[in-house]
Amino acid sequence: MLIQNKTKSAGISALKGIVMLKFLIFFAVLSVLMFLIDRFIRKKYNIPKEEFIYRTVNKAQRIGEIIIIILAGAALLIAAVTVNFNYRFPVFIMLFCVYLFRAYMEQKHEPHNKRYLISLVGCVYVLLLSVAAYFWFPPLGTCLL
Q1: What number of other Cβ atoms are within 10 A of residue 118's Cβ?
Q2: Which of 25, 55, 75, 97 has the greatest CB tally within 10 Å of its CB?
Q3: Which residues make Cβ contacts (< 8 Å) with residue 102, sequence separation at least 6?
Q4: What are the residue ranges spanned by the domains of the chain?
């Protein structure tokens, strides 16, 4: 009985390792694809490379992004404390909202710049990554088999 449990445990661990490896390969391929799309858009529309720290269009955008991050953090904290918290990837939702808000503000205030296209690429990247992670990994407390 003990040998059978060790074999089953080793099989589940190996399966989890394979699932993680497939996700990492998907992540790498998606990252390279988004990098190439980013480079293509920058060359096509002559968008200069940004500095290391992102520069907001105006003060309202900066305040809006901070509010989104604070509200997402507060909602995450409240959900973790008050309910049976089983949501898997809330950080992706926050990043998606920040990128979407950023793209909206850039398009609204600087439509001639086309920098909002880069933010939309980031938004799509976060969305695809979160959907893949959501379906790739089972909820906490469940078995893969």
Answers
A1: 22
A2: 97
A3: 56, 61, 65, 116, 119, 122
A4: 2-136
Q: Which residue would you say has higher pLDDT here, 8 or 26?
A: 26
Q: What tokens appear for 144 in the block? A: 């893969």
**Crossing angle of the two packed helices 2-45 and 116-136, in degrees rounded to 10:** 170
- What is the reported pLDDT for 105? 95
pTM of the predicted model as reported, rounded to 2 decimal places: 0.78
The amino acid that residue 39 corresponds to is R
Q: Based on the number of CB atoms within 10 Å of its own CB, is 32 exposed (0-12), middle (13-18) or buried (19 or more)?
A: exposed
End-to-end CA distance of the chain: 19
